[in-house]
Design a protein that fits this description.
Helix content is 45%, strand content 11%. With 197 residues, it is α+β, with helices and mostly antiparallel strands. Helix 5 packs parallel to helix 7.
């Protein structure tokens, strides 16, 4: 409803670009990735990627669904051979893998909930989310930085969120079951040794 309201309020000459990188993970009943908005007019573009659900981040492979005139403009400015053969083949193989998306969504649903639960029990605030990551709140920027250093010392790399205005949070991607378990154990140990001030 929020996206529909935004689209309705934008002038006709303004292009709305919807980034659907996490679309496969969203399970809210009121969510639509944007194909309906592309179909409804001539000034909306929906972007998608193989980086998230298909795990092909290094392939730099994605696609757009847009009205024909916009696609024509994009084709005029894109460089030739902009997607390498290996990335093309990886994308085709990913699309052909039976049940891959469903398996990835189920894995993410389970481990996002499990990581969130364990971190909440450890005393961290973890908002509900729809992506393949969680954003625990460490209370202060300094404590988030300390948690980041604690994790890195154990070979666990996460992303600081200060550049997004969320300095007290870290972005923890949902990985394998083993990775999620190691991450939870490390953060439980960190919180036990570094309670909130």
């Amino acid at each position: 409803a929020e996206i529909l309201r935004l689209r309705a309020q934008l002038p006709a000459h303004v292009l709305l670009v919807l980034d659907g990188a996490y679309a496969e993970y969203v399970e809210r009943a009121d969510y639509a990735a944007g194909a309906d908005l592309v179909d409804a007019g001539d000034n909306t573009v929906m972007l998608r990627t193989f980086s998230k659900i298909f795990g092909l981040g290094g392939a730099r492979l994605g696609w757009a669904y847009a009205p024909a005139p916009i696609v024509e403009l994009l084709n005029r400015v894109r460089s030739p051979f902009n997607v390498g053969l290996a990335s093309q083949e990886a994308g085709i193989a990913a699309l052909a893998e039976p049940g891959w998306v469903e398996k990835g969504v189920a894995h993410n649903r389970h481990w996002r909930a499990e990581v969130s639960r364990r971190l909440r029990e450890a005393g961290l605030g973890v908002p509900e989310g729809e992506g393949n990551f969680v954003l625990p709140d460490f209370g202060t920027a300094g404590r988030a930085t300390a948690a980041d250093a604690f994790l890195r010392a154990r070979g666990l790399i996460v992303r600081g969120m200060a550049g997004y205005g969320l300095a007290s949070r870290l972005r923890l991607s949902i990985g394998t079951a083993e990775e999620c378990t190691l991450l939870c154990e490390a953060l439980e140990a960190f919180v036990a040794g570094n309670p909130r001030p």
